[in-house]
Fold each of these.
Amino acid sequence: MTRSISRREAALGFLAIAGTLAVGCGGPGGGGSRPSGTSPSPSAAPTIGTEPVTLKAYFETGFPLARALTDEFTRQFPNVTWDIREDQFAVITQNAPRVLADDPPDLMRLPQVSELVGDGLLLNLDGYAEVFGWSDWPPSQLEQLRVGEGGRPRGEGSLYAMGLNFSMTGVFYNRTLAERIGMAAPPATLAEFDDLLASAKAAGIVPIVQFNGGATGGFAFPLQNLMAAYGAAGPINDWIFQKPGVTIDTPSNLAAVRHLQEWIEAGYFDADANAMEYAQMMSTFMAGDALLMFNGDWESGNLDGEMPGEVGFFLMPPAEEGGPVATMSAPLTYGISANAAHPDEAAFFLDWAATDERAREIVVEVGGSHPMGLPDAHMPDVAEDSVTGQTLAAGARIAEDDGAMDFIANATGSVYAKGWTPQLQRLFAGDQDPDGLLAAVQSEYEIEAGS
Amino acid sequence: MTSPSTGPKPGPGPAGAPGRGRRPGLRPGAPAGLRTRWWVGWAFAAPALAAYAVFVLWPMVLTAQYSLYQWNGIGPSTWVGLDNYGRVFTDPELLDTILNAIRLIVFFSVIPVLLGLAIAATIRRIAASRLAVVARTVVFVPQVIPLVAAGITWSWLLSSDGLVNQLLSAIGLGGVTRAWLGDLSTALPAVGVIGAWVQLGLCTLLLLAGMSRIDPALYEAARLDGAGPLREFFSVTVPSLRQEIGVCVTVTVISALASFDIIYISTQGGPGNSTMVPGLEIFYQAFSDREIGVASALAVVLMALVLLCVLPVQRLTRERP
């Protein structure tokens, strides 16, 4: 009666089941029926109405802006309530396709959108852009959110997402330490910037604290700023947007990596950079242990609160005095699921965040960044001397010079994790040279962009 | 393969305990009836078997199936046969993760087992003193501390101005100080040290328990034959601990090859992929790169590798009849 199953039989059985499944049942996924590029075409701008509505939202933990806006929205439109779920950005990045497919939110914080568009998971917003008049805004605000058919290239085509604001990056500095080494005004040229770093080093101050540890190579910030100092922003954007035939391995970018290498060799970065996470960088800078930090204006409000009057901000200077400035600037991206239950209300909210006066004030006060929308739209009063005031002013300068770039980390889904991060870590460790770095990143990019 | 249910020895479990309010006299015929109905045993095992099938076997079958496709987890999939396996064995990035895992065996397995033997032997010799209790506690504490907390603590200890470097500087070794987790050549050993610290407690405790089982007469006989402490250790203690050493090696080798948590917390595979291991790579491939096929193929290879390392250990350390 009793019969034991031998290991070999068990293994054969396992293989047989797996084989049957693999051959007999066809591949996983492939529902394939999801309409790609569905686009609502409203004839007039949708309104919120008076019927009770519950909007399902998926936000990023640690950034209070989205919740502050939804609270205000419900105050103005009491028939709207929110069902909000929050996660860390890394978790959102990893789960975005699944969530959009299986549990579609009306409004969701999004990572890079190309692949989501390719899978037909995001609602095409062209119709809303028409009726709400988003098409009249400065085109650069929405450029990064436009995606070609099938997800490539980015930077042109239909609109698939919106920003709650657009953030901007540059150099934060500690005013006390800057005074100690005699910095009267922010550097106007790259050479002056180098001098500033050298005098900090000579005074025994850590010139730059920058995270570059774990899976997040933060040296991409100074590197991209150096790239824009040595060359034009346009070709860098083309590469990020996966336009055909563009390479990152150019002479001006090579000069930028060499410059970064010189900084590394001169000991201008905190020695722990390769073991440092973002949070550690922030605590080091806020403890007054370093002169500079390359970071974005999403920290402006935080720095104004924690170190009032202590922190200054400037844009990376150009190679030649008076030359055009450029820096990384990106919308805080939100999108609507292709299967959302209330797309009209979600689109109305996105428009409201850019046009309502109180909403725009919240965007500046809570988010620290510039609101979306028309250039002459309402702006709250901000103390010019505060970090927020300085980053907003810098944003205006970038708009003037048309110097907004997306992040080189956003070019493909994993060029950051598999290309930039390990290569920049190896550069810091002295284990990679500038030529090798660009070649390796380009080859990683081609594997993905070609697939 | 380490199923605890394979042991035929009847234990003094609750089933054998008499009393407990259940008088056997009430159902005199039951045991005989149970023996004749062959399916009753299966019925009792069915809930567990069902859970095992749904949560272990079925995902394994699916993983094996996914490994034969190119799939991003959402859209349609393409049959690619064994191409994903080809990539695992030819892409240096993926192959390196396997080599790193094998290197980690030294830290997660060899060091804790050897050190655990030495520490357990020492604690046994001083078993009567209060120091033994303290030592046991200190060695076992890493098993109790949440790994996340341990990872954060260690990343501070190993930073360039952390305690480790302060101690090195204090004894005149300032020249070798560095950011241990941030250096390409030291990151993997540094992560290994954290692993060794975690595994040491488990090994020591297991071995100590094994030692308490050894017949004291064996030691007495050895001593009468003129054996010193070292000879006692190698001729009595180590051979008697064959099974416990087997368990230690098995558990720690698996934790080295399938490591994820310690590395995810301390380095996330960096710097420059120098601490990337298969567990982490599978996670990145599946959820960042959305290469479910490659991730599944690497998972299947990892499972085969674990079996390949663990089965010989099981065979070698099996008690001879």
Note: Strands of chain A lie at 53-60, 80-87, 107-109, 146-147, 158-159, 162-174, 292-296, 311-314, 327-335, 404-405.
Amino acid sequence: MSSVSEVQAVSEYSVATAVKVENVSLTYRTTFERTPTFKTALVRLGRGERAVKEVEAVQDVSFEVPHGNAVGIIGANGAGKSTLMRMIAGILPPSQGRIEVDGRVSTLLALGVGFNNQLTGRDNVILGGLAGGLTREEIHERYEDIAEFAELGEFIDMPMRTYSSGMFQRLAFSVAVHMDPDILLIDEALSAGDATFKQKAAAKMKDLAANARTMFLVSHALRSVKDMCNDAVWMHNGRLMMHGEPKEVIAEYRKFLKFGEDAYSMEDF
Amino acid sequence: MNATRLDEDFTSSTHVYEPHRAGLPRFGKYFRALWQRREFIRELSRTSMRAANTLTVFGQIWLVLNPLLLAMVYFTLVFIIRGTADSDFLAHLVASIFAFTYFGGILRSGASSVTGGGKLLMNTSFPRLLLPLTEVRTAFFRFLPTLGVYLVLHIATGQAWDWTMLLAPYFVLTLTLFGAGMGMIFATAQVYFRDTASFLPYMVRLWLYTSPILWYPWEGQARIQEVLGDVAWLLYLNPLYSMLGGWSESLVRTSMPDTPMLIFSAAWSLVAIVTGVLFFMSKEREFVVRL
């Protein structure tokens, strides 16, 4: 039964739009402090300072991506790339506009699979899957593949506080790609892990893209965007600067980096 | 599509994300997604209890020993101050301390449930209410073994058995709902002010003294009438007065609790759970940008 429905699903997806972002904006209020406390709030109040700052993380962004595309998201730090990814994943609801996402989304937006370092890798994989809405059976079906791909050996049954950062990375990546996603959102996944695993990860992502899955890759490594993606989005200060062929977008982005913001009129885009 | 699928929203082909109206997500969709992920609550609660050794023999003994030792300390304190304290009072004190420890547990662990969930919140979209609710379940399973100890004490101190004891679970229920609601409020506050949890122990301690734990409910009424006049109703402003008072009356003294206790405990718990859930839900979409 499942094989038939999967075939149908794939053929439906191959013609449909994977992600449609329409005039989306996100504005939120946040504080300067990394750990906001009541004490500092009182101190600020005493000084008459405003502790809350309004952040316009994403402003009036629209684009459409058909299924089967690998989209590279590029831009400087704080351009709103990660925020945009979180909005597509449904983690952050937009404050304006509308996002339509077709299919199952799997994310690798923050390092680490689960959240409790006292628990084993296995427990964290199960908890992450359950929170994401999978059933226990579905997680068990995938579990062996996840553990094998991550190459953690016995560490999978050890508390995650004993993991090295590369191990964290490998497990997190393995979970994200083995969730059978229709749409995979990855943030800087290739920046850590050793060379062998990087290659393995890149191969896995190409494999997913080849199977008509859609992928969003946030990266500062322009070369990997050029290699892996057939579509690119360039964000700057929360605005969409350009959407198109990776080669052209990267060339424009490089020009922008060289000549600076002043040489560009933002309204052109 | 597949019979084993729990979550229609997760597998359905299209998700639409739009701004929340009036700051709240759609209730039907939200609570359906919450119900579909109920397994998460069980799993997280179970694994975190295992990580804290709660499921081992000594872990279980400690869960009982801790409030029991606390009860001994207070028993001695009351004995010194009043010069008298009998076995009936001991039974009341222990039963009330156990229930209060349960409530304090929900409050404390509920308060840090969201800030402790960092990575999962950043990575996955799910109804955040799962986190404080998990803490309620964990606290409840820590409360259960203490009940067994109380029953032994109930027999040892020669307390009566009566049908009113069947009312005791009613008060546990109101206490749970009240604790859950308060836990959600504190969990939200903790996201905005990380030092909220530092105030909690003082608040909890103060609450312990102002609730009928070190004194009987009727003693509180008599005392307040003596000092302030005919304003015994003031006691009902403390939600724990009705909940813990009713718990001790029905379970330890096996007498029918006053009707206001039955009504006020239900009313307070409903107010707390509705306020807590709505407050938490109205703020939860901001959690990711505040963590």
Note: Residues 2-25+65-104+181-268 of chain A form a domain with the Rossmann fold fold (CATH 3.40.50.300).
Amino acid sequence: MPSIADPISGMRLADAKDASAAAAAAPAVTPQATSERELRLDLFRGLALWLIFIDHLPTNILTWLTIRNYGFSDATEIFIFISGYTAAFVYGRAMLQVGVVVATARILRRVWQIYVAHVFLFTIFLAEISYVATRFENPLYTEEMGIMDFLKQPDVTIVQALLLRFRPVNMDVLPLYIVLMLFLPLILWLMKWRTDVTLALSAALYVLTWHFDLYLSAYPNGVWAFNPFAWQLLFVFGAWCALGGARRMSRILAPPITFWICIAYLFAAFLVTLSWYLPQLGHIVPRRIEQWMYPINKTDLDVLRFAHFLALAAITVRVLPKDWPGLKSPWLRPLILCGQHSLEIFCLGVFLAFAGHFILAEVSGGAGMHFLVSVTGIVIMCAMAWVISWYKHSADKGASRYKSAGGNADLAGGAV
Amino acid sequence: MKSGFGTVLGLTLLAGYLAAAPARAGDPEQICDVPSNLLSTESKLPKVAEAVRSGQPLNVLVVGSRSSTIPSSEGSAYPAKLQAALKESLPSTAVNLSVEVQGARTTEDMGGGLVKLVEEKRPTLVIWQTGTVDAIRSTDLDDFRNAVDAGIGALQQAGTDVVLVNLQYSPRTESMISGSPYLDNMRVSAQEHDVPLFDRFAIMHHWNDAGDFDLFSPAHGVELAKRVHACLGRALSKFVIDAAHLGPAQQN
């Protein structure tokens, strides 16, 4: 796992200079990491992972619990923001303590891991689609089966997939994440110089994206479902919060007026969302506002979505204090564990969504089965998170060394 | 917040239960009921209403991709069933129907030829089914939206009524084709042009959830397709008649 703790466990192999630098760095990080471990981040990232999994399954009862049905933003915003936050927290410190080059090297190793994970998921997708293509011939869906056409030219498709240009459904988040992480060294390096200027630059890029319609093209046509030029804003904002921004924001967040503005905005967003599902309510949204508002663009992270996320975050931070005793409760433990191993659990979630689709298709598609598949998936995710954390703390050879690093393995492992 | 979630969960469960509960008798007409909210629209079909009221023939043109037909049994596909149902509901009106299936063509490809088709066939009503090919090829959403807008605009300009038909609900390919952004854009576009949208996706989804049809079925036979299309044709006929305000009560 990519982590501050890595050089410690690999100390014997590393050259002396690097090792001593890392060793010197570790104790400096440890007290902060342990005392400041933000369980809220883990909690909500775990929640985002569950919600992403549920949203990737066909619509069922649990889908109605996911936040995208109650407002503009969804779990992706939470995931990207927290990822920016933790990545900056872990690698930002590394950059200060062991220098730009080593920190960059570690980030690049992380990027490689995410890339490999993505390719692994693509392989599973290929297996599923090839199976369905050969087994399923319902005349009702001859047209939809056209999606299999790409199997006819694997030479092009697979290469495009390796270039991250061909992304099947539900496989859009990791490529976005790879690109964002690839630019993390630059972001952190700029932030080391001036955090506020970096955030301003990021916002400027966001504005330019909207103004000049910047995008990354995809294969066979279309664009990246999550435009990195726009979504970087959320990532950089997360990083900015991690590097001191959150503390300074508290002055804006404290007055009750902020709280009520957020509540009002969330309520308005809720009404608008409601009007999508109950067309009878269509008239509650004035036509003028409707014309101005639609379409709410997910690809380019619409301002409405961003604002919705900010409002949610502002209220969460206020309602759930850092030292809320519930964070230690065993009931929330599974969520927190999932959030602490987010890359693994994210990939597992995408895999389970494929598997879930498959079971629903092969066994039965009833509402009961849907529910069972969703719940089973979440239980598997939690069990896997528990196993991973057991490995890290107990089963790995270097467990004692990890422990001496004060739980840092966890934090960095969660640095997805 | 917690009690809000609880309420929503309760309502959802209740709704799911109610939707699944009614025992379905053997009556084939009853088998594919469509909840009235899925067939209600605020947009109107004035040209259709006028033609029927003045005793002129009702010329319907269905333009669509391959999901508007069933391979090798076109007579059982929804357009033919729509014609039969319209004739039954409007006994004093001559209902002519032609179908223009344009397989593997995106909305933009199709849109270009619409005006020419209308000039040839002089329809009162064009039923335009689209979106599937775009979703498969993941056409850029802005391009898609513009193409739908342009197509509807051209048809309205040419003087016909328009009904938009969206994608099929296809659970087997749900993990491979992302339909929802295309569904959303079609809904918005229909709303903006004040055109009735026949929500084929939601209707088929409802049938699958309610147990009318098992759309996950890997069956190779053509029977399921025929039954689904028969139900779609009937529902579409009801939708057209309602949107044209030609219901029994409104027909003098």
Note: Residues 100-135 of chain A form the longest helix (36 residues).
Amino acid sequence: MSLEKRTQNSVDIVKLPEQLMMAGAADVRTELKEIISNGSGKLIIDLADTTFMDSSGLAVLVSCLQAARKKDEDVCLVHMGPTVSALFELTRLHTVFQIFDDEQGALSALT
Amino acid sequence: MPRLPRNDIVTGDETRLLLDSDPADVAKLQLRLLALSGSAGLDELGAFQLTTAVVEALNNCIKHAYGGETWHPITLQWSLGQGIITIEIRDQGKPMPSPLPETPELPDEDSVSGRGWHIIRQWTDAVSYTRKGNDNVLKLMRRL
């Protein structure tokens, strides 16, 4: 799997696929952690296309957040749809991540 | 190992789906579960919630019952009656702990695992587990 990625103002911006589930979770985790390791550690994860996520997907995002915070940086989530948002609220991860409606808000928070 | 044939058997308000204990099979099934939930009458959020609970239960079959081995059979039976969707999931792996855990506390926020059962319990109305012969039989129920 190769994720769509670009960099703006030293912030890496990555778009996740439609599904973030147990199948493929390990590949996405590896790729995101490489981006964090090789880059500034500031990461925006774009969930515009992500309509389904399970607890394996949540685990990927939590492990990325930990990797970024080890570099004293942060991960922001953008374009989260209402169903995935419900999953974050159920698991209370909406209190752990910075979540923005759009990329501009996330960029302002990270730079 | 040869893969089992995958069949959808639909009879009235019942649908029987056969899959392997392979995360790729669960990923393929996700859209089907969403469609079944929607056609039963759940709204978008309800369909997502029930689908996520079922996916978590299938993930548990793979991880815990079959220890991550991807070639074992799982049967999912979906039925609708008296305003209740019932999903029966059968596997032939290791027995589950009995009684089932009640709604567990969420793990620490920085924990990478431990949220699956919480999702199953919160997004279904009832869950039951029995061991029948060599089969684990987990039933998830959700009111319309």
Note: Residues 41 and 72 of chain A are 8 Å apart (CA to CA).
